Amino acid sequence: xxxxxxxxxxxxxxxxxxxxxxxxxxxxxxxxxxxxxxxxxxxxxxxxxxxxxxxxxxxxxxxxxxxxxxxxxxxx
Length: 76
What we know:
Elements: H1 3-17, H2 29-46, H3 53-65
């Protein structure tokens, strides 16, 4: 049974009992996505650049190898 079928079943059951119908699936999806985007933008502003993901990865790589990552060079 998919989400739409379950919703129709729940709505029918709620109507039989005289209750309010449940919220349709996906009704809050767009709002949730917008809130997540807004939170990520906020975090990008308030997070110290040294604590961002790529900086933490670079520090971890340098710490493990003891040297800076030089990238891919010519194959010899």
